[in-house]
Every structure is written in structure tokens, then in C-alpha cells.
Amino acid sequence: MQILDKSFEVFITGDEIQKEVKSLGETISEDYADKEVVFVAVLNGAFMFAADLMKTITCDSAISFVKMSSYHGTQSKGSVDELIGLNIDLKDKHVIIIEDIVDTGITIDKIVSFIESHGVASMRICTLLFKPSSFQGKNYPEYVGFSIPDAFVVGYGLDYDEKGRNLDAIYQIRN
Ligand code: IMP
Predict the structure, then answer these.
(1) Cα–ligand 1 centroid distance for 88 (angstroms)
(2) Considering the entire predicted model, what is its pTM?
């Protein structure tokens, strides 16, 4: 399949994804059976994963969608990161961050420090995809759908230059 200037081939089928998402949801529901969980889903990439995962969650839960944003401050040089969209008070809550992919871990480390600053009771990371060979972060994901090699992937929420998010399978770049 062609997306813009690059060629991609199927890497994980839609059926394989759905099976894994269901299994992740069952595990989380068991682990948090007697607790209330606040899911914090990171836009844009995690929108599809979050929607499917939430349908499999049976424990008491709420969800908030957030986005990392960087802006150029007026006082200092360089950009400042902020987490926008959080509309639930996380104090003393059990939080699970939902990500589409953890690659170098830089993004998730930033998100974790924002979340932790809210005084949460506990915090875990759930990611559909994890690239262990490129990971250099401090915060390992506890719930991982698929560990994959370090190659660019697209589909099921993940984009190549904003294209391909709608695909129901995950495609890997063809070299
Ligand atoms: P990080 O390297 O873990 O900070 O990942 C940063 C962001 O890059 C992720 O949240 C994704 O949005 C994006 N990303 C990393 N790897 C891929 C990929 O293979 N395909 C599409 N987006 C990716």
C-alpha cells in the first residue's frame, strides 16, 4: 500500500489487534477489579486504541483525552511543553495512561511527570506498541500489546504525515 511517497505492507492484522486489545482489557479489568481507574488517553495517535480498549473494560472507570503541546514562551528561549485537555481531577486516583506507541520514551517520560505532579495514588502505562530497541526512557510500560522492531509503522491511529490513521491494521514501512 502506498501512503504519500512511501510503500507499506501489513504487519499486524486488524483481527490480531482486536484479539490483543481484548486481552489487555481483560487483564486491566482483573488488576483493577476493586478500584476506580482514570484512563488518560494521549491524542492523536491513541484515539482508536483507546476507543476499542474502553469497550473491554469492566471495572469502575473514567477517561480523559489529553494532548502534548509545546509553545514558545515569551520570557525564555526554546519551547515549553504542556499537557492540555485534562478535565478530571487526578488527585489520589489510580491512573492508566493509554498510548499508541512508545518509541524512544521521551514523550511518555514527559507525560508521566505531568501526571505525577497531580498527586496520583498510582500510575501505569498501557501502550499498544513498544519498540524496546529504541527505548531510552525512565518509565517502562506495564501493559504492552505488541513489542515490535525499530521500523516505522502506520495505521490504527498512527500516522505518516497525518495519513493512515483510519486503517484497521498496522502497516510497516517497506524498505
Ligand atoms: P517517543 O520516541 O517514544 O517519544 O515517541 C514519540 C511519538 O512519535 C509517538 O507518540 C508517536 O506519535 C510517534 N511515533 C514513534 N514511532 C512511530 C511510528 O513508527 N509510526 C508513527 N508514529 C510514531
Answers:
(1) 26
(2) 0.95
